[in-house]
Amino acid sequence: MQPASGKPRSLLFHGDRDQRPAPRELEASGYAPGASVLVEAPADGELRILPAEMVRERVRQIAARTASELSGALQILADHDAEHDASK
Questions:
Q1: Rounded CA gap, 38 and 60, in Å?
Q2: pLDDT in tens, 53-67
Q3: Residue 55: inside a domain, yes or no?
């Protein structure tokens, strides 16, 4: 974990508790004690921490990116549905 100050920090895990210490430098960005966060751990090994207030926007970003990446498949499904509805 590399906080804004540039000093490396250790991420500490204590048993099965869901609380983790964070550097005080992050409090100004909304990561105050007791703040709710979403933690993402993508396959690339990166660890992302997002304030809970931003989760809805993150879900929208992921949905838009996925729909864009799969637009061809979505069009095939839409065409199939249209053909199915026309045959009724």
A1: 15
A2: 888 888 899 999 998
A3: yes
**Residue 36, burial from CB neighbour count under 10 angstroms (0-12, 13-18, 19+):** exposed
Domain count, the chain: 1
User: How does pLDDT run across 39-50, given as a tens digit for each residue?
Assistant: 888 899 888 888
The verdict on pTM exceeding 0.85 is: no
Cα–Cα distance measured from residue 86 to residue 80, given in angstroms and rounded to the nearest whole number: 10
Give a yes or no: residue 64 inside a domain: yes
